[in-house]
Amino acid sequence: MSPFCLSIFLLTIFVALFTLFQIQSLHTTTSPSFSPLIHRWQKLTTCNQEIKSLSEKLKESVTFLPLKDLRYQDKALQGHTWFMSSMYDTQEEGGVQYQQFPSNSSNFRILCLKGNDTHDGSWNSYALAWPETLPSNATLMKGLTFVSYNHYNYDNIWHGLSAIVPFVAWHIRNGCENPNRWVLYHWGELRFQMGAWLRNLTGATFGGEEPNVERFEWANKNDPICFEKAVVMRHNEGGMSRERRIETYDLLRCKARVSCNVSLLQRVNEKGLPLIGMTLFMRTGPRSFKNESAVIGIFEKECAKVEGCKLMVAYSNNLTFCEQVKLMGMTDILVSPHGAQLTNMFLMDRNSSVMEFFPKGWLKLAGVGQFVYHWIASWSGMRHQGAWRDPTGDHCPFGEDDRRCMSFYKGGKIGFNETYFSEWARNVLTEVKTRKLEEVKNNSAASTSSCACG
Ligand SMILES: *[C@@H]1O[C@H](CO)[C@@H](O)[C@H](O)[C@H]1NC(C)=O
Ligand SMILES: *[C@@H]1O[C@H](CO)[C@@H](O)[C@H](O)[C@H]1NC(C)=O
Ligand SMILES: *[C@@H]1O[C@H](CO)[C@@H](O)[C@H](O)[C@H]1NC(C)=O
Ligand SMILES: *[C@@H]1O[C@H](CO)[C@@H](O)[C@H](O)[C@H]1NC(C)=O
Ligand SMILES: *[C@@H]1O[C@H](CO)[C@@H](O)[C@H](O)[C@H]1NC(C)=O
Ligand SMILES: *[C@@H]1O[C@H](CO)[C@@H](O)[C@H](O)[C@H]1NC(C)=O
Ligand SMILES: *[C@@H]1O[C@H](CO)[C@@H](O)[C@H](O)[C@H]1NC(C)=O
Ligand SMILES: *[C@@H]1O[C@H](CO)[C@@H](O)[C@H](O)[C@H]1NC(C)=O
Ligand SMILES: *[C@@H]1O[C@H](CO)[C@@H](O)[C@H](O)[C@H]1NC(C)=O
Ligand SMILES: *[C@@H]1O[C@H](CO)[C@@H](O)[C@H](O)[C@H]1NC(C)=O
After folding, report:
1. In this predicted model, what pLDDT tens digit does every residue of 153-192 receive, in sequence order?
2. Do residue 221 and residue 276 come from a single domain?
3. Looking at residue 266, what is its pLDDT?
4. Claim to verify: residue 359 and residue 312 sit in the same structural domain
5. Among residues 205, 217, 243, 353, which one has the fewest Cβ atoms lying within 10 Å of its Cβ?
6. Which pLDDT belongs to residue 295?
7. Which residue has the CA at smallest separation from atom 13 of ligand 5?
8. 237 and 296, same domain (yes or no)
């Protein structure tokens, strides 16, 4: 209420009391003070109308802008990005880049969204509004809403994980608050599904149930939907410090193990020697090993030479989420071709090892994306023990370094080099055994039984 309106209000109360007093005193004739009173009353009514008309104006001044801003098409992922491009992110030292509504930076306005287009994000739109003056026909959704921007998709486990990691980081630093719902976008287009693995991981992390992905089926196409509290992420883990990433993956691992009932105890044999799990995590189809039995044989042989070593062979395509969590909990050395299944590595104990395999041609032609499993190893506190790159493979008619060759190499299969694999396995096994012996001696192996968030 403005000072003017407030003074009118107080004056009115005073005048009302005074009038009552006058009536009580049986001054039934019109007192000289009565005509200014009418005057003030009229002024108050005008004031109310003024407020009403101002709030009408505020409601109507809520301006919706396209979620996908085509002006920034060539800088889709930089700075304010092309998604909600008029907004700037908040970032605390080493933390995630995020937007929160309402907040200081939004002038305590809340986020409203409009549209359910699944093909063109420039048809969906966003706006900020004060909770007291929401645009007309708006629906207010209570609780906390996570709004995710994903440049790729929510099915691939690597891209899906990248999208939820920043929310987990926010959750840790904000009293472990769980979302009531998720709104998923890809290029500003709505998405209604997470892949099964991601659904399970998200459910395990934020309260045990499957994440509630909003579909807006109930809403009229042109009506705004506003959110009591919303957190928006569009930069994945970009800008996070190593410690904050490790803290985030620690929570994901811990929550996944708790929800899958995986024991968190240190693993030693009857003699008190550490058990070493070596897992061959196989693919079928593209980037699988040409001769699996030969590869299995090589690692089996080296594993058998180390006391406490146990070799496991698994296929990523037919394990449930909890089977993967369990398997990774028993794995100290993950041996696997380049591919999304390697994303599971963060589910191993910290400091575990990864050995990666590529088909021919990838180093020169596959671009920077081929190093994602080096990155996630570093972010989640694992040791990437290097990669083997097959020197032989499919023939490309354009010459080995031609970019067109990637289509020949992309789905290539992976051979083996017995000498190289044996020596590599031996070295990694020795290193892991030394570390685990020391951990047993120090009694320092990761064996926490409760997670950072409840
Ligand atoms: C909001 O901003 C004001 C001044 O800019 C500052 O004093 C206050 O601490 C901020 N509040 C929060 C919650 O950040
Ligand atoms: C609000 O909804 C009513 C009824 O559906 C409709 O007639 C009206 O045009 C809507 N107002 C706005 C601003 O969309
Ligand atoms: C994992 O997802 C599948 C498929 O959505 C579901 O049936 C299963 O209950 C989930 N498991 C957990 C532990 O959430
Ligand atoms: C989008 O909104 C329209 C109109 O309300 C509705 O008929 C349709 O089912 C919605 N589409 C999706 C994908 O939810
Ligand atoms: C974990 O154990 C609890 C209680 O023993 C049980 O209710 C739950 O179904 C188990 N979950 C899984 C994924 O096995
Ligand atoms: C796979 O490798 C083993 C051992 O080197 C060899 O005996 C076998 O013939 C190979 N299998 C195929 C299909 O090439
Ligand atoms: C899993 O898939 C692999 C490869 O397709 C197959 O060899 C194996 O038998 C399957 N395992 C189960 C338990 O279905
Ligand atoms: C991982 O290794 C480093 C260096 O050896 C050690 O300081 C750290 O405690 C280990 N972390 C865990 C969780 O074992
Ligand atoms: C296999 O690896 C060994 C050891 O790194 C190397 O000397 C040899 O040239 C490799 N053989 C082939 C066929 O690439
Ligand atoms: C074990 O303790 C020693 C001495 O405190 C330390 O130097 C070493 O890094 C520790 N090793 C592990 C694996 O925690």
Report:
1. 999 999 999 999 999 999 999 999 999 999 999 999 999 9
2. no
3. 61
4. yes
5. 217
6. 98
7. 260
8. no
